[in-house]
Specification:
243 residues, alpha/beta, Trna Endonuclease, Chain: A, domain 1, six-stranded mixed beta sheet, 7 helices, elongated
Length: 243
């Protein structure tokens, strides 16, 4: 099964984004995949006898949320399609990824040069299965972040991946805990924890709980440290006056 050739044109419109998704789906074996007319078929963009897809083209970094994925699932069920794809040029929120994992939706992001990136584990498993089944050579530019099955990066999109901020969140928790000895460190841990929470919601980290813990622990130790600092200052002033 030959994969689609590398998309040499830069994607600048939603029409080109939909055509890129169509080419990928046909390369994955959905030979009868076709674009729908604008507004037709419940808002779906690519349909075949065995699969359905929605394509989002965003010029900003707006992440795809759970409601959009739910809408796609509803349309796919109504049309009796078995495989459900979602393609976006941005990212996905944590809730969207969790819902897709529960319902079997394959989440992908794509670069503006057409390369696809599998985001959740359903998409990764699908891509690896297609890569093993294909004996064709692939005409894809290797991505600097690592190797990829069938020209598709295992995780993330737009230069990001789903575990990009995991180490950052671990550091945030470490700094927050160390903040029991030094409250400025606790403040840094809380700030990093907050940033890590946002990264998890955008689908750039899988350990959002660690970031949440870093944020809460950092806040607690920062408040205690500040109160202790001012308490010591007050005690010192009292001692000076008494002396």
């Amino acid at each position: 099964m030959a994969m689609p050739p590398f998309y040499h044109r830069i994607i600048t419109t939603w029409q080109e984004a939909e055509f890129n998704a169509l080419r990928w789906m046909r390369g994955w074996g959905y030979i009868d995949a076709a674009l729908t007319k604008d507004g037709a078929d419940g808002g779906l963009d690519v349909v075949s006898s065995q699969a359905v897809a929605q394509v989002k083209f965003y010029l900003n970094s707006k992440p795809v949320g759970r409601p959009e994925v739910q809408q796609l699932v509803g349309a796919a069920i109504a049309g009796m399609r078995r495989q459900i794809f979602f393609f976006t040029s941005s990212t996905y929120t944590r809730n969207a990824i969790e819902y897709a994992n529960m319902t079997g939706v394959l989440l992908f992001t794509y670069d503006l040069d057409g390369r696809m990136c599998a985001v959740n584990h359903h998409a990764v498993a699908f891509v690896r299965a297609r890569a093993r089944a294909s004996a064709a050579s692939y005409n894809f530019k290797p991505h600097p972040n690592g190797r990829s099955p069938g020209g598709v990066r295992p995780y993330g999109g737009f230069g990001r991946n789903a575990t990009e901020k995991n180490t950052f969140n671990n550091w945030a928790l470490g700094l927050a805990i160390f903040g029991i000895c030094c409250f400025p460190t606790a403040i840094a841990g809380a700030i990093m924890g907050y940033q890590g929470k946002q990264a998890a919601e955008q689908g750039r980290a899988t350990n959002g709980g660690v970031a949440q813990a870093a944020f809460l622990i950092g806040i607690i130790f920062a408040v205690l440290g500040i109160l202790g600092f001012f308490s010591q200052m007050s005690a010192g002033e009292v001692s000076s006056v008494s002396g």
